[in-house]
Amino acid sequence: MRWLRAFGEVVRSGLTIEETRLEPLLALRTAAGVAIVVGPALWLASPAYAASAALGAYSAGGATFQRTWRPRKVIALGAGAGLALSTFVGYLAAGRLVTFLPLLAVWAFLAGMAWAVGSTAGIVAATTVGSMLVTITLPTSVERALEHAGIIALGGVAQAVLILLFPIRRWGAHRDALADALAAVADYARRLRHDPTAPFDPEPLMTARDAAAVTPSQARTRPPALHGPRGLAERIRPVVAALADPDVGAPSDGPGRDRARELLNAAADVLDAAARSIRRGTPAQVPPESADVLRADDEHEVLEGPARQAAEQLVELLGEALEVAGSGARGKVATSPGTASAQFLVRPTMFRLLPVAVRAVRCELRWDSPVFRHAIRLAAVATLGYLIAARLPLNHGYWAPIASVMAMRPDFHRTYARVVARLAGTLAGVALATGMVRTLGPDAHVLGGLAVVSAGLSYTLIRTGYAYSQCFTAAYVVFLLGMGGQAWEQTVPERVVLTLIGGALAMLAYVVFPAWETPRLPNRLADWLAANGRYAAAVLRSYAEPTGERRADMRRALLASREARAAWQEAYDQARQEPVRPRGLTSREAEEAQEALKGFGRAAMLMESHVPRADSRSIPEAERFAEALEADTAQAADDVREHRIPDWGRLEEALHEWEGAPAGDRSTVARRGAELQRRALEDLTTAVSRTPLERDVGSVREEQRVRAAVAAEGDGSGPAHRRG
Asked: Main localization of the protein (predicted)?
C-alpha cells in the first residue's frame, strides 16, 4: 500500500463512527464521580485543587471503560493510585530539566512497556505520563504536591465507591462475551446449512475464555450460568462441522442432507436461546419445532455411519444447552474458595499480578518487539515534545507531549488514525467550548458544571470513535481551564497549535523508528503452522491412545493453535494497512497461505468431533501419522522462516501406509481428515513457494518446462504436462 492510500485509510478510520451500544447509565455514574470531587474542591479549596480532583476522577473514570475483565472499581482505584504517584514523583524532579527530563523519559518508557501486560495497562499508564506533565505546574511545595496527589487519588476512590454503591449490569461484559460465543456457534451452524465447508472464526470463543478467568473473589460471586455454557459451545462447534461436511458427515444431497440441515437449524435456535438467556439473565423459550427435531427416532433415522454418530452427539449436547436456556441465570453461587479455584480459570489478583507483569515485560525486551519500540518512541517523543513546547512562547506547553503520548499506539495504523481523530476532535471541541464560554461568561461554577457535562458526553461516546469522544474531552479541558481563570483567547489557539505539534511528533516518530509487521509475516505464518501441526498431531494421538491425558493434550494444543492464529491475524491485518512493500510474502501469497492453514485446522477440527472414548479400540496408524505430521510441520515452519519450499515426505509415506490398514467408522474419519490435511499442506506449499526469494527457482523450473514442451513438440510427441 502506498503512503497516499495508507493515509486515506487512516483518515477514514480515524473519523469512522463505530457501531456499538451506548451505555448512558455508566456514563452518568462516571460523570457523577467527577462532579462529586470537583464541586467540593471548588467550593472548599481553589480552582487549582478542583483541577487536580477533576484530573483524577476523569482519568480514573475513563479507565473503567476500557475492555478488561477485572472489576471496574479495582481499575478505578489502580488508575487513581498511578496518577497520584506520577504527580508526586514528577513534582520532586520538577524545576530543573536535568532531573525532570530523565524521569519523564524513564516513566514514558515504562508506560510504553506496560502494553506487554495488555492494552488496558498501556492506556492507563499513558494517562499517568500526562498527569506528570500537567500537575507539576500546580503545586508550589512538597506539602502541596502531596495534597494534589491525595486529591487525584481521591478521584479514583470516588469512582470506585460509586461503582460499589450503584452497580449497573453486574457481570454484563462477561455475560456478553459468553453470549457472543454461543451466538457465533449458532451463526456457524446456520451457515453450514448452505455452505458445508464454511469457515469459523474462533475469536468469540477466545474472548469468552479470557472472560471466564476470574480472581478468587470473583469466583465466589459469579453466576453459575457463566461457567458451563462455554464448554458446550466448544464441544458443539466441531460436531456441527463434522455433521455438515460431505466428506465425513451427511451426504451431499438426499434425505441425509435434509436431516442434517434440520439438525443444524435446530442447533442454531437452541444456541441463540441460550445466548439470550445468558445475556439477559432470564429463562428463554426454544421454538417447539426445533425441540421436536431434536427428539431422536432410531427407527426413522436416515443418517448412517459417522454422520449418525455426529447427529447423536449433537442431540446430546443440545439437550444440555436446552437446560441452560430453560433455567436462565438463576441458581446457587459457589462459595468455597477451594472449590472455586479448582473449577474456574484463575486470574491473578492485582497484588499477584506484579511477577506476571515483570515476566511479560522481560519477554518484550528485544529490539524487534513492537512493544519495546513503542516504549522507545514514547520516551523520545515525550521528552522532545516537552523541550520543544518549553521553547515556544506559549503557555500550557505540556499539551504537545500529552497529545503525542495519548495518541501513540504500538502499531502504525492506530497511531496515525488516533492523531487524525485527536486533531479533528480537538478542533470541534475547542470551537464548541469557545462559543459557550463567550456566551455564558467566565463564571467558575457554571464552567465547572459544563466541564462535568462534557465529561459525561465524552464517556457516552467513548466507544463510538476516538474523534467524537475527544471532541467533548477538548471542551472539558477548555471549561476546566476557564474555571481556573484562563481566558479562552489564550487557551484555544494554544491548544490547537500544540495538538498539531504533538500529532506531528507522533507521526514522525513512527516513520523514524517503525515496527512494521509486514516483514514479520513469514515468522507469524511459521508459528501458526507449527502450532496447527501440534494440534493436529494431538488429535490423531487421541485416536491412537484414547485416554483422558490425550484429551487434555489436545485441548492445550488447540488453545496454543488459536493463539498463534490470532497473532497471525493481527499481524496480517496490520500489514495490509502499512505503507511498506511486501518482504517475504506478498498480499496474495499471504492470503492463500492463510486459507490453506485454515483448511488444515478445519480438518483437525473434523477429526476432533469423532475422537473415540477411553474404552474404544486404538488406531496405531494414527500415531505414526501424528509423528510424521508433527515432524514435517515443525520442519516446514523453519522452511517458511528461511524462505525455502516445505517438504512433506514423511507425511506422504505415513499416509500411504495407513491406506493399507483395515477401516472402521472412526478410522475412516481420521484417515479422511488426514487426507484433507495433506491437501491443505500442498496448497500451503503452492502459496509460499512463490515468495520473492524462491521466485528465481520457480522461474528456472518454468523455463525448463517450456523448453521440454518445445522439444517434445519438435519430436512430434506433443506438449509435456509433467508437474515440476
From this structure: membrane
Calpha distance 522→503 (Å, rounded): 32
Which grid cell is 584?
517475504
Cα(61)–Cα(307) distance, integer angstroms: 53
Pick from 122, 167, 179, 228: which is nearest to 25 by CA? Answer: 167
Question: What Å distances lie between residue 327 and 207, 222, 285, 293, 493, CA to CA?
Answer: 24, 16, 10, 21, 60
| Domain identity same for 428 and 564 | no
**Cell numbers standing for residue 305:** 455411519
Query: Global pTM?
Result: 0.86
Please write the tens of the pLDDT for every residue from 651-681. Answer: 999 888 887 666 555 567 888 888 999 999 9
Distance CA 166, CA 210 (A): 26
Question: pLDDT above 70 covers what percent of the chain?
Answer: 88
Question: Is the CB of residue 267 less than 8 Å from the CB of residue 230?
Answer: no
Q: Are 612 and 543 in contact (CB under 8 A)?
A: yes
> For 538-580, how does the pLDDT look when each residue is reduced to its tens digit (9 = 90+)?
999 998 888 888 889 999 999 999 999 999 999 999 999 999 8
Does 152 lie in the same domain as 23? yes
In order of 87, 199, 681, 684, the CA distances from 595 in angstroms are 50, 9, 11, 8
Cell of 681: 499442506
Q: 586 by DSSP, 3-state: which?
A: coil
Taken in order 574, 580, 584, 587, is the CA torsion positive or negative?
positive
Do 112 and 187 belong together in one domain? no
Which of 445, 512, 505, 515 lies closest to 480 in space, CA to CA?
445
Rounded to whole angstroms, the Cα distance separating 279 from 272 reads 10
Q: 141 lies in a domain?
A: yes
- Compute the Cα dihedral for 196, 202, 208, 209 and give only its sign: positive
pLDDT tops 60 at residue 713: no
Across all residues in the chain, what is the average pLDDT? 85
Q: Is the pLDDT of residue 636 over 60?
A: yes
The 3-class secondary structure across 299-367, one letter per residue, is HHCCCCHHHHHHHHHHHHHHHHHHHHHHHCCCCCCCCCHHHHHHHCEECCCCCCHHHHHHHHHHHHCCC
- Cα separation of 134 and 353, whole Å? 29
Q: Report how many domains make up the chain.
A: 3
CA 165 → CA 34, 115, 172, 196, distances in Å? 16, 31, 16, 50
401 in a structural domain = yes
420 pLDDT higher than 60: yes
Q: Write out the three cell numbers for 487.
A: 481566558
CA distance 704 to 724: 9
* Helix, strand or coil, per DSSP, at residue 118: coil
181 shares a domain with 111: no
Task: Give the sign of the dihedral formed by CA 454, CA 457, CA 463, CA 465.
Answer: negative
User: And the C-alpha cell for 157?
Assistant: 476512590
Tell me whether residue 360 is in a domain: no
Domain that holds residue 311: 172-222+224-330
Q: Are residues 468 and 321 in the same domain?
A: no
State the Cα torsion 295-300-303-304 to the nearest 10°. 120
Q: How far apart are CA 468 and CA 417, in angstroms?
A: 13
Q: Is residue 79 part of a domain?
A: yes
Over residues 252-281, mean pLDDT: 90
What's the rounded Cα separation, in Å, for the pair 678 and 658?
13
pLDDT of residue 136: 64
Whole-angstrom distance, CA of residue 150 vs CA of residue 88? 9
For 91, 104, 132, 451, 570, the CA distances from 100, given in Å and listed in that order, are 9, 6, 10, 30, 37
Q: What is the pLDDT of residue 138?
A: 62
Q: Which amino acid is at 288?
A: P
The predicted structure's pLDDT at residue 338: 37
pLDDT at position 662: 61
Q: Which of 470, 489, 512 is the last residue of a domain?
A: 512
